[in-house]
Specification:
The chain is an alpha/beta fold. Helices cover 30% and strands 28% of the residues. It is a peripheral membrane protein.
């Protein structure tokens, strides 16, 4: 039986001007699971996340959140339900870490509902969970790439949304902080039931943390399913143009990709055959 979905995407076409990025895409994001989008650069993963957060208007099709078209939701209502950390976000360099993280509480603020004890608690949990509490007074322009990335993640976590979308959240982090970040996201999912949507380039991290793995290529979903189904040498060659051996991780029991070299080259130049979603 299929898992209940939190987000349903139907016949979604996204474009930049006349250039189609995603073409009639259909995808279901399961409720309370970790879904990882993977694929080569430029395949539309980041644009899809922006569309889910209604930051990129579709050319056609629709995105449903809990059965409601997101186009019909108010801006703050949507922001209280879906949080997004996009690639390369920006903020004034003289802003402090605490001021940045406080921005995550904006959807919960109003003239009649100013800053509250709940906001403070959310702020502290987010900074503590990402390990930036000791940086709270630092200007973000003085931070290292990894410190800054953790501060941005803290801002999204402070938003306390039921759906969290993270676009390459571990991109600027060292190995230890990559694991810290993804373990934190996993705890939010397992302990609090948050629905998580991640874009990851590291296929082995994707296979380790995903409940559902989605391969996107040439603007379409090529295939999706559990990591055991998705981590196949033929599929990896088709989508990533890489010859690989897939073994079982002896510690975590998840599939592990060992890249051997480029495939024939045809996979990156030829539109894929849709294998089943």
């Amino acid at each position: 039986m299929d898992e209940p979905s939190r987000i349903d995407i139907a016949d979604l076409t996204l474009a930049y001007g006349s250039d189609i990025v995603l073409d009639a895409l259909n995808l279901s994001i399961p409720r309370g699971r970790i879904t990882v989008l993977a694929g080569p650069n430029g395949c539309g993963k980041s644009t899809l996340l922006r569309a889910i957060r209604r930051l990129h208007a579709p050319k056609s099709g629709y995105i449903m959140l809990d059965g409601k078209d997101i186009a019909r939701l108010g801006s703050k209502d949507l922001a209280r339900q879906i949080g997004l950390l996009a690639q390369s976000p920006s903020a004034p360099a003289d802003m402090t870490v605490e001021e940045l993280v406080r921005l995550g509480r904006y959807p919960h603020q109003s003239m009649l509902q100013p800053w509250s004890a709940r906001d403070t608690a959310a702020l502290e949990r987010a900074m503590d969970g990402t390990g930036v509490t000791h940086l709270r007074g630092r200007r973000i322009g003085s931070l290292s790439g990894g410190q800054l990335q953790r501060a941005w993640i803290a801002m999204v976590l402070a938003q306390e949304t039921e759906v969290i979308c993270l676009d390459e959240p571990v991109n600027h982090l060292d190995m230890a902080h990559q694991l810290d970040c993804l373990d934190l996201v996993t705890r939010l999912n397992r302990e609090e039931g948050r629905t998580i949507v991640l874009v990851l380039h590291d296929l082995n991290l994707a296979a380790r943390y995903a409940d559902k793995l989605v391969f996107v290529h040439h603007g379409r979903v090529v295939a999706s399913g559990g990591p055991d189904k998705m981590m196949r040498p033929d599929l990896i060659a088709q989508v990533f143009d890489v010859r690989a051996e897939v073994i079982t991780d002896p510690v975590h029991g998840r599939p592990l990709c060992i890249p051997l070299g480029r495939a024939t080259g045809q996979a990156s130049n030829t539109a894929p055959t849709k294998l089943g979603v």
